[in-house]
């Protein structure tokens, strides 16, 4: 009992601190209104090892952010914002505009600006973009990156869903690629397999960036940087140490309206790899050089209270993730429509929120799409945030199943999740389920979900997902399009084997809409449909990101639309 | 002696092969798919297959193990897949013998990673070893010679406290107060000895103290116990009676006889520590062999896991052998056969 009181006390204190800071943060968002100062050295302290700098292999928000703002200009990008969490606008970057789409949504054209150069002074050409994007197809060399190019471009696929084009090294199917991606002067044309109304948003990812063929060393290029942005790497990248980025004298500010490139140097220090607690102790202590430091690592639970109290040096923003529950349509229980509905009705999201640290750290949701996305439908909770076990029990009794209905629910193991699922179990059991919880270690979690054997082992899974760019086309089809996800090798990201022809037709319809507002509305409708009609997904919470920075850092603003991290475009150091 | 060392070295080699083969087998028996780690968020079945090929995990386990063993003797070229090397020669990385493998997460040979990490682990181990041997053995001698007096109680009490405090607690406390808050020493970051011996020591002093505090405590108790036992032997009384100087009695006759178990413990502790002080390295952000081992397990980097198991085992087995040989020098009654 004593322990419970202490935990509750800490949670309450933290929640109060967060409320106070959130209010203060709105008025003065981390120096967002302060004009930038040119010069000085910005330090990026990182407790997470960079996996890739190769633009086609980068798939982590931090590296998309840093890659795009420092050395990989993309055709389009999202502009910086004036305060934390503000919506950013899609703007042209290396291209002259945000692209032109054909009436049927199947052809996109971009023209590369004059004056965009590589660090050796050569112009960035259409061929460089075509070559860069082609590298994504070499899945046996260029691993880890997003596969949107394979999904979107009009290149035939084999029976296993792999592309008939094998990338620029093998060159198998090169003619197919050259038809799908072609250059005319400095204009690049993309032919899509299906209408893709938001391709210009996908083009913000560095995977759609340029790469010079003569600088390509395959896997050896993983940490090499050949810049066309305002900074270049000084020397080589050292794993677990990092590198220093210095000005690229070939970058022409006149061609770039996005990056202010204030600091003379950016020191990327990874020597704290694996040591998040020390990193935040240093940022909170704010001593010496650490006053010029930012981090892209979220504050660990041990630092939440002190980060929340560091007014003026913190950011508390909605994370791009939604945590949700997936009933398994292959399980005997949840192939039953009423049982899924009963599970949804009995789910106590409040237990999850409390376990996470209160409603300033997590918010209950009934939408799979994150609130940061224009498509967010804000579907009302079916029975408040605590659920309605009594109503759920009535449904379960009407389902034809014998009560108590045994179910096995999996989640990714950690102390917070243990508490959250123990709380939710009470609601499910009160509704007539006999819930067995299976906690799976983090490093095995998603590979377990995606193993074909899990289909007959578990009845429901916890999962989390964040959009890759602010279009719900990176959410709904990626999680629920059975045609692209489910194969003999497993469910892909459609962990619950949700397979509905009407829903898939709705996905095709939404993909084809070229008007942004109408398209996002269509995604929102599909979200509500899967949540309230099919009960194929039970959204749980949206959590928050907390960051801190040193006192000399100006313009440390989180760009939620772009990556959800501090935006390096306008950041500067007081010196 | 020569044949003894030869026999022991042969046993070491056989043991290492058994250990690596077991590690391979265990890795592939686990339900995890290492290719899933490199496949990215939006991973499909066909891309997963490509990843397996890129990593060399698409081949039978015995083939992979055979290539690993061959690499130790003749070196290897990466990527492992011959067709991939033919398709794009610019990406080939040569790993000279004894090739420990190619890291799937750090995208370089494990030989390079180990070459970077071992000076860090060696520096931590040697410094901490020196401190704990001086403090631990010295403290143990003082405590034994003052058995029952306040000096004994103080030293034994301090040793108990030192032994009770977990290394992560001591490390984090020292780091937070001595380095971050008070700024008495820099925030630890490894500086090679040849670059600046002063900065090398400055940056390593906290990891040294952290480890030495823990180990010294057990050496105080060990030395004290054996010294008390030895100092009550008849031959010590005889040495004292024939008028030998106290220093000669303590060090030449007492300590030398008490050294055998201390050397055994010291050899094994040092051997284990050379393979990396996992907690201390992690707390102080020192990327030595211990950190490398943790990182490779976290990210399912099989080649690095196998190499680390082999290296750590080697240190322990070799340390064990050296301890056996040292016995002969400490105690002439011991003969290696």
Describe the structure.
The complex is a heterodimer of chains A (575) and B (337). Chain A is of the alpha+beta class. Chain A contains 17 helices and 21 strands. In chain A, helix 16 packs antiparallel against helix 17 (516-532). The longest helix of chain A has 26 residues, at 2-27. The radius of gyration of chain A is 24 Å and the shape is globular. Mean pLDDT of chain A is 90; it is low at 1-34. Chain B has 337 residues and is mostly helical. Chain B folds into two domains: 2-108, no CATH class; 112-336, MetI-like (MetI-like fold). Chain B is 73% helix and 2% strand. Chain B contains 14 helices and two strands. Chain B has helices at residues 2-29, 34-38, 45-55, 61-74, 82-87, 110-145, 150-164, 167-181, 197-231, 234-241, 246-274, 278-283, 289-298, 302-330, and strands at residues 76-78, 93-95. Chain B has a two-stranded antiparallel ribbon with strand order 1-2. The radius of gyration of chain B is 25 Å and the shape is elongated. Chain B starts with a helix and ends in a 7-residue tail after the last helix. The chains are: A alpha+beta (575), B mainly alpha (337).
Overall mean pLDDT of chain A stands at 90
| Cα separation of the termini of chain A | 51 Å
The unreliable regions of chain A are 1-34
Task: Name the CATH superfamily classification of the largest domain in chain B.
Answer: MetI-like
Radius of gyration of chain B: 25 Å
Q: Overall 3D geometry of chain A? A: globular
How do the SSEs of chain B run, as a string of H and E? HHHHEHEHHHHHHHHH
Radius of gyration of chain A, rounded?
A: 24 Å
Strand arrangement in the largest pleated sheet of chain B: 1-2
Share in helix of chain A: 25-40%
Number of helices of chain B: 14
Beta-strand percent range of chain A: 15-25%
Query: Could you say which structural class the secondary elements and strand pairing of chain A correspond to?
Result: alpha+beta
What is the class of the largest domain in chain B in the CATH system? Mainly Alpha
């Amino acid at each position: 009992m004593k322990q419970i009181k202490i935990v509750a006390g800490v949670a309450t204190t933290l929640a109060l601190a967060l409320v106070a800071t959130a209010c203060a943060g709105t008025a003065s968002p981390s120096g967002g209104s302060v004009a930038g100062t040119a010069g000085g050295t910005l330090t990026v302290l990182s407790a997470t090892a960079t996996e890739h700098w190769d633009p086609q292999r980068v798939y982590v928000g931090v590296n998309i952010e840093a890659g795009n703002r420092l050395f990989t200009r993309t055709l389009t990008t999202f502009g910086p914002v004036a305060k934390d969490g503000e919506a950013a606008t899609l703007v042209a970057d290396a291209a002259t505009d945000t692209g032109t789409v054909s009436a049927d949504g199947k052809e996109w054209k971009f023209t590369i600006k004059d004056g965009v150069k590589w660090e050796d002074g050569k112009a960035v050409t259409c061929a460089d973009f075509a070559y860069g994007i082609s590298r994504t197809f070499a899945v046996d060399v260029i691993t880890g990156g997003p596969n949107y190019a394979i999904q979107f471009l009009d290149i035939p696929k084999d029976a296993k869903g792999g592309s008939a084009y094998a990338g620029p090294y093998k060159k198998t199917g090169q003619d197919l690629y050259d038809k799908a991606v072609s250059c005319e002067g400095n204009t690049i044309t993309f032919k899509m397999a299906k209408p893709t109304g938001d391709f210009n948003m996908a083009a913000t990812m560095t995977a759609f960036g340029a790469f010079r063929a003569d600088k390509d060393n395959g896997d050896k290029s993983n940490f090499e940087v050949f810049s066309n942005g305002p900074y270049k790497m000084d020397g080589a990248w050292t794993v677990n140490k990092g590198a220093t980025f210095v000005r690229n004298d070939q970058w022409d500010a006149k061609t770039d309206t996005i990056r202010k490139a204030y600091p003379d140097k950016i020191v990327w220090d990874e020597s704290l790899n694996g040591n998040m607690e020390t990193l935040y102790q240093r940022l909170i202590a704010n001593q010496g050089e650490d006053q010029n430091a930012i981090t892209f690592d979220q504050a660990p639970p041990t630092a939440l209270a002190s980060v929340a109290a560091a007014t003026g040096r913190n950011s508390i923003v909605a994370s791009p993730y939604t945590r949700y529950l997936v009933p398994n349509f292959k399980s005997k229980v949840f192939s039953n429509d009423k049982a899924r509905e009963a599970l949804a009705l009995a789910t106590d999201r409040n237990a999850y929120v409390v376990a996470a640290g209160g409603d300033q750290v997590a918010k209950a949701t009934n939408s799979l799409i994150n609130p940061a996305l224009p498509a967010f439908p804000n579907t009302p909770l079916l029975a408040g945030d605590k659920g309605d076990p009594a109503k759920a029990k009535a449904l379960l009794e009407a389902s034809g199943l014998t009560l108590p209905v045994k179910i096995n629910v999996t989640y990714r193991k950690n102390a917070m999740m243990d508490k959250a699922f123990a709380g939710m179990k009470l609601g499910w059991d009160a509704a007539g389920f006999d819930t067995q919880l299976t906690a799976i270690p983090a490093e095995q979690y998603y590979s377990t979900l995606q193993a074909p054997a899990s289909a007959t082992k578990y009845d429901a899974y916890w999962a989390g997902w964040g959009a890759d760019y602010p279009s719900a086309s990176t959410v709904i089809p990626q999680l629920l399009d059975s045609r692209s996800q489910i194969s003999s090798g497993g469910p892909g990201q459609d962990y619950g084997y949700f397979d509905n022809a009407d829903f898939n037709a709705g996905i095709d319809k939404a993909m084809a809409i070229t008007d942004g507002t109408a398209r996002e509305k269509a995604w929102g409708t599909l979200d509500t449909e899967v949540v309230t009609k099919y009960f194929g997904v039970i959204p749980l919470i949206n959590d928050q990101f907390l960051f801190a920075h040193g006192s000399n850092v100006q313009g440390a603003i989180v760009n939620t639309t772009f990556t959800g991290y501090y935006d390096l475009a306008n950041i500067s150091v007081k010196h | 002696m020569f044949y003894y060392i030869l026999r022991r070295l042969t046993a070491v080699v056989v043991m290492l092969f058994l250990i690596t083969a077991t590690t391979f087998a265990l890795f592939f028996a686990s339900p995890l798919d290492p290719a899933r780690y490199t496949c990215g968020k939006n991973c499909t079945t066909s891309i997963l297959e490509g990843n397996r090929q890129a990593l060399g995990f698409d081949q039978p386990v015995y083939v992979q193990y055979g290539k690993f063993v061959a690499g130790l003797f003749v070196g290897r070229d990466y990527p492992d897949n011959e067709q991939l090397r033919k398709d794009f020669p610019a990406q080939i990385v040569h790993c000279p013998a004894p090739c420990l493998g190619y890291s799937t997460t750090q995208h370089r040979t494990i030989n390079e990673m180990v070459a970077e990490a071992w000076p860090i682990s060696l520096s931590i181990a040697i410094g901490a070893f020196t401190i704990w041997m001086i403090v631990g053995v010295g403290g143990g001698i003082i405590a034994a010679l003052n058995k029952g007096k306040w000096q004994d109680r103080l030293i034994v009490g301090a040793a108990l406290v030192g032994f009770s405090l977990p290394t992560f607690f001591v490390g984090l406390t020292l780091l937070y107060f001595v380095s971050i808050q008070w700024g008495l020493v820099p925030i630890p970051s490894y500086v090679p000895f040849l670059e600046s011996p002063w900065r090398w020591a400055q940056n390593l002093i906290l990891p040294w103290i952290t480890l030495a505090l823990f180990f010294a405590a057990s050496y105080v108790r060990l030395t004290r116990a054996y010294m008390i036992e030895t100092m009550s032997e008849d031959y010590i009384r005889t040495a004292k009676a024939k008028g030998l100087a106290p220093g000669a009695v303590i060090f030449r006759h007492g300590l030398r006889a008490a050294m055998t178990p201390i050397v055994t413990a010291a050899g094994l502790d040092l051997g284990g520590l050379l393979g990396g002080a996992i907690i201390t390295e992690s707390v102080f952000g020192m990327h030595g062999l211990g950190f490398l081992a943790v990182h490779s397990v976290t990210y399912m980097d099989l080649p690095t896991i196998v190499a680390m198991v082999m290296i750590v085992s080697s240190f322990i087995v070799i340390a064990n052998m050296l301890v056996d040989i040292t016995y002969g020098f400490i105690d002439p009654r011991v003969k290696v056969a």
